[in-house]
Amino acid sequence: MRRQPHRRNMIWITADQMRGQATGFMGDPNVHTPNLDRLAAEGIVFPAAVAGTPLCCPFRGSMLTGRYPHEAVPGHEYPLPEGMPTLAQPLREAGYHTAYFGKWHLDGFKEKGGRAAMHIVPEERRGGFDQWLGYENNNSQWDCWVHGDSGGGEEHYRLPGYETDALTDLILDYLDERTKANSGRPAEEQQPFFTTLQVQPPHNPYVAPAEWMDRHTPGALALRPNVPEIPEYEIPARRQLAGYYAMIENLDWNIGRILEKLDELDIADDTHIIFFSDHGDMLGSHGQFLKTTPLEESLRIPFIISAGRLSYGEERGYVPAPINHVDIAPTTLGLLGLDVPQWMDGTDYSAYRIPGQDMAGEPDSAYIQLCVPTGHGHSIDRPWRGIVTRDGWKYVVLEGQPWLLFNLNNDPYEQVNLAFNMAYSRKRAELQEGLQQWIEKTNDSFPLPDIRVR
Ligand SMILES: [Ca+2]
To answer: How far, in Å, is the centroid of ligand 1 from the Cα of 108?
Structure first.
């Protein structure tokens, strides 16, 4: 017999810098992702999902707190504010066992002070999870150190082999342990769990095990049409993409190992899986690399709500809502049948997955921001604010200045900027009105441009 929804388990699988376009089910011709395709086919896909701030630390702060970056983690190497509750709190109050594995990047460690992979996040700054084994930041997939406590006291060691494979091994062990802890107990006494696998691939450096690297040849890749045919951009784009796709295929294989384990332990039916990334990667589109820009390759993330096994009792299909970073925690609680605390700003989208439930209070747009520029090369050098609408428009402003206006319905590669086109001044005013509402609603502040037509 199926357990009550609130007793189901939850696994988040989170990639780093994996853009939303780079999967088989989204039509990328260069990559084979059979396990992600299976999750997508059996679950709910949000093709319009966005990283409200396309940058690690702010995204992760919002992911765990359901609050916008300006109220949580505004910029690169900013810490999660002292004492701020995370998703772990309502989960633990509801009796969940909670465990976090992998990349954290929320302790405010400054990379110029040494290698963040060797930084030990203090126990009281691990977000309130029962178990926590991970690292602040790594960027070296063959030399991945973890620090923390996976149940047997503090430990610090170098993971064997490739990061994604080794972190997945930790999750597989955890699934074994939780199943063992519940074995022999009646269903109502079994403790459900929340766990997450947070891997850094396909973040640069673009390196995967040889078995995966062998599958991709830079010159044979089909580039997005917005990668300029200029050697300075095209050559590095091809070289990076070959490794990028290898890393994604390796991650996909590891997701397959998790699905097999859930089957083996007979908990596939009882386990929700949410797959997403913290932002994308430009990889040569518009002659740009990496992130922090609101362009599609940086902003758009994969987002799937699925389960360990196909369930005919749940909704499937594609949902056009621009689900955002702040919505992940509320949606997680909603899927588990738990109340969303007042301090979370995001929207619970679980009704799209749960049969017989209707969405209420769904916004018609997502609020996107870069509060604090990183100062890194290949990044945007000033703050911006913007809005992405459910009906396919994107509008972004710099301080006191319009910047970008795209109709994604007919221009998915963002080749025509309408921000200064008089024919679209009314659309621009409408979108700026929506943007202003977001700024007010979220207690943000930003000098909007004067866009009155003279
Ligand atoms: Ca990241």
So the answer is: 14
What is the torsional sign of CA 76, 77, 81, 85?
A: positive
Calculate how far, in angstroms, residue 369's C-alpha sits from the geometric centre of ligand 1.
15
Query: How close is the Cα of 17 to the center of ligand 1, in Å?
Result: 5
| CA–centroid distance, residue 199 to ligand 1 (Å) | 10
* Ion ligand 1 residue ranges (Cβ < 5 Å): 16, 56, 278
Mind listing the domains of the chain with CATH numbers? 5-352 (3.40.720.10), 382-441 (no CATH)
Query: Are the CB atoms for 362 and 321 separated by under 8 Å?
Result: yes
- CA 96, CA 7: separation in Å to the nearest integer? 9
Cis status, amide bond into 302, omega within 30 of 0: no
- The answer to whether the CB of 291 falls within 8 A of the CB of 279 is yes
Q: Distances in Å between the alpha carbon of 253 and those of 46, 88, 91, 166?
A: 22, 28, 29, 13
Angle separating helix axes 328-335 and 56-65, nearest 10 degrees: 30
The predicted pLDDT at position 396 comes to 98
pLDDT at 3: 41
Tens digit of pLDDT for each residue in 23-68?
Answer: 999 999 999 999 999 999 999 999 999 999 999 999 999 999 999 9
**Dihedrals phi, psi of 85, to nearest 5 degrees:** -70, 150
pTM, full prediction: 0.97
User: 355 alpha carbon to ligand 1 midpoint, in Å?
Assistant: 33
